[in-house]
Design a protein that fits this description.
five-stranded antiparallel sheet, alpha+beta, seven-stranded antiparallel sheet, rod-shaped
Length: 552
């Protein structure tokens, strides 16, 4: 009878196995899949109890699902057994294919290990294949059919027929364990994909929020902002500008995209811009406005990569510093110019004069030519007199010179013999009769006279010449490229410009002027140059009669 019914039993079991496997693939989550694995054992394979032990990332196995007994489920679900204890169990007993059966005669040694277990007491088996309550049957689940990494272990207990499973029951359990491993792997993959999708969506949301925050910060920033290209044929071209920058430069955004900052910067500031744009940094320079004027701005550049390997852009913050710069220039002007007349003051005069002379006296033209030839052909001693030091020479350098001296020496013409030499004339001017004007008419009139004298002196010199006020009624004129006769003619023109009456508050007053002509020359100090011109002025003042110097 049993032989005749065996095919029908197998067919029924096959249908139940098929349904259990189908249920595995409909679970929505990893937890549902694990519970479906345990439920399928009880509902489809004829066991009263089933437990799914899942391998955790650190290697131990946790009871992830239980079916068949609510009390046992509440007691042991979530408990953990060590990997070593499980490895021991899977190496004991009898191997039924990929299954591992540990009979009660051997399993008693496992009662005290750390693997959570549930069992009931029962009588001794009455026949050979009867199931004992302490029998253990495990179905390992591997990541692949070829024996990959262990995913978990299904443990079953108490077959409903009370017998150990036969060949067909073992095969069915092995097949189910294999399908359960696939279902668990797929569930893990889906879970990982879902987590990855959630993480990606969150990152995209964060990116969109960041982009929106940047857009608003960029567009509505109170100071100018711009994004420019870096590299390629369009290096420096403006890709995007905000409203504040467009208002600052008086150009709409559509027009701004035609330019780069190099097109807008003041010609004198192009070097500063190029150095700043290379790898980011900060600079102060002038940018042109639509009306042709220039505006002082502070540029702060940051290099930004679009993606990990994408093109780089230059994010530029443009701040209007016109007012501060005007204030700084005004302070610098006040520090270097006379408050009353607006002329360069004594400190500025000495600075300009110092820039033209060096400590080393200039040699004669003939000697210079000879020494230049000697230097070219290796005459070290002669070369050193001009500040040149050949490679390997460690001797003392000439004071005021350097290894490579490109200074153009200032020479003084010979006042006795006009040989065509041009030099830097220093005309020291002292007003005659100014003290009497101050005493008679007051400082208000004296100040007005000084202002008018400064104006007249400035109108009589060339662009590039310097008219400075030393203090009191003393002025100095620096005029380059003059011979001795030229300097004398200039002094006469300046004196004649000062002599005409000066009207102050309806009153005409007169002042005279005495001029001393000195020459700036390398080898002299600034004080020596001014003292020489001052001394010659006093010689000239004493040489003229008091009548010629009278004014008032």
């Amino acid at each position: 009878m049993e032989a005749e019914s065996e095919p029908y039993v197998r067919l029924a079991t096959m249908r139940q196995l098929h349904q259990a496997v189908a249920d595995l693939n409909t679970a929505r989550s990893l937890a549902d899949t694990l519970q479906s694995v345990a439920d399928g054992i009880v509902e489809g394979l004829g066991y009263e109890l089933a437990c799914v032990n899942l391998v955790r990332p650190e290697g131990d196995l946790v009871i992830a699902a239980f079916a068949g007994n609510a009390a046992a489920e509440a007691l042991i679900t979530g408990r953990v057994g060590s990997r070593d204890s499980w490895e021991r169990r899977l190496s004991m007993g009898e191997a039924w294919g990929s299954l591992r059966f540990i009979p009660h005669t051997e399993g008693w040694v496992l009662l005290d290990d750390d693997v959570p277990q549930w069992h009931t007491e029962g009588p001794e088996p009455r026949f050979e294949d009867e199931w004992h309550p302490l029998d253990r049957l495990y179905a390992p689940m591997y990541a692949s059919a070829g024996g990959g990494d262990l995913l978990g272990v299904i443990s079953v207990d108490r077959p409903r027929n009370g017998r150990r499973p036969g060949a067909w029951g073992r095969e069915a359990l092995q097949m189910y364990a294999s399908q359960a491993a696939i279902a668990i792997s797929n569930a893990r993959l889906r879970s990982n994909m879902q987590r990855a999708l959630v993480r990606l969506e969150r990152e995209q949301q964060a990116l969109r929020a960041s982009e929106e925050s940047f857009r608003q910060a960029f567009e509505y920033a109170p100071s100018g902002m711009a994004i420019a290209e870096m590299g390629g044929d369009q290096q420096g071209r403006l890709l995007r500008t905000n409203d504040a920058l467009c208002r600052l430069l008086g150009r709409p955004a559509s027009v701004m995209r035609r330019y780069s900052f190099a097109d807008l910067v003041h010609p004198e500031d192009i070097g500063t811009l190029l150095r700043t744009s290379a790898e980011g940094g900060r600079a102060e320079l002038r940018l042109s406005r639509r009306d042709g004027t220039y505006l002082w701005v502070s540029l702060r550049n940051s290099v930004v990569a679009d993606t990990a390997d994408g093109p780089r852009f230059l994010l530029t913050h443009v701040e209007d510093i016109e007012e501060r710069k005007r204030h700084e220039l005004n302070l610098a002007h006040r520090a270097s110019h006379d408050a009353l007349t607006g002329l360069p003051n004594s400190a500025e005069l000495k600075s300009r004069l110092s820039a033209r002379i060096c400590e080393r006296p200039h040699s004669s033209p003939a000697a210079t030519a000879i020494e230049a030839l000697d230097a070219a052909y290796g005459d070290v001693e002669s070369s050193l007199t001009h500040g040149y030091q050949p490679d390997g020479y460690e001797g003392e350098a000439i004071p005021g010179g350097g290894p490579f001296d490109h200074h153009v020496h200032t020479v003084a013409p010979d006042p006795e013999h006009d040989d065509g030499t041009k030099g830097l004339a220093v005309l020291f001017c002292d007003l005659d009769g100014f003290k009497s004007i101050n005493d008679r008419f007051g400082h208000h009139t004296g100040d007005a006279v000084l202002i008018e004298v400064a104006r007249r002196l400035s109108t009589c010199v060339r662009d590039g010449d310097t008219v400075a006020r030393l203090g009191g009624d003393e002025f100095v004129v620096l005029a380059d490229g003059l011979g001795a006769a030229d300097a004398a003619d200039l002094a006469v023109r300046l004196r004649n410009a000062i002599i005409p009456p000066i009207r102050v508050d309806g009153r005409a007053v007169r002042v005279g002027a005495s001029f001393g002509i000195g020459w700036a020359e390398c080898g002299m100090t600034v004080e020596e140059v001014l003292r020489s011109a001052d001394q010659r002025m006093y010689v000239e003042k004493r040489s003229r009669s008091k009548v010629h110097r009278r004014a008032g």
